[in-house]
Write a structure and sequence with these properties.
about 170 residues, alpha+beta, about 45% helix
Length: about 170
């Protein structure tokens, strides 16, 4: 799995570079593909903060029944948004994979997105929350290992880099 992850990260590095010519959405799709192929996840999605940073909205993803997930991935960035919003507002990673240890509000959040376990990883560029990477499992909820979370954080770093590079290139 380490060799696969190294190859996926190399592919992602190549797509993040502005020299690749890939549009931002395509570079982010490469990141989502890395998460689905390199981690034990059934789905991965990208969500973006709306203009006034009051809502996180699903944009696109990969995996099983992802269109329905993207439609449900609407998180108010307020106390109404539950544990996912709380983590995003604090810019903290959230991993809700062990069903036996989840609080009732965490269980509701996982079920509302049709998953057995999920992770949310904020994308911060220039100290601004611009979006997040969402990933989940549909059948198994055991917590992924430390190496998997390290891999996810590497993918997140490169996704934020892609956003930053394309944003600065588009700024006059």
């Amino acid at each position: 799995i380490t060799i696969l992850r190294e190859q996926l990260l190399a592919d992602l590095n190549a797509s993040v570079s502005p020299a690749s010519g890939l549009a931002l959405d395509k570079a982010l799709l490469v990141a989502l593909e890395a998460l689905v192929r390199g981690g034990p996840f059934d789905r991965a999605a990208f969500a973006v903060a709306n203009q006034d940073r009051t809502m996180m909205l699903g944009r696109f993803g990969l995996g099983v029944d992802v269109e329905a997930l993207v439609g449900r991935l609407r998180v108010p960035l307020s106390p109404r948004g539950g544990p996912i919003a709380a983590a995003l507002v604090k810019r903290e990673d959230l991993a809700l994979f062990d069903e036996r240890t989840l609080r009732p509000d965490e269980q509701r959040a996982v079920r509302a997105l049709g998953a057995r376990g999920l992770g949310v990883f904020p994308l911060v560029v220039d100290a601004t929350l611009v979006g997040c990477l969402y990933l989940d499992r549909l059948t198994e909820s055991a917590r992924p290992d430390v190496g998997t979370f390290g891999f996810v954080r590497e993918v997140r770093h490169r996704a934020a880099q892609a956003i930053d590079l394309r944003r600065t290139r588009a700024t006059p």
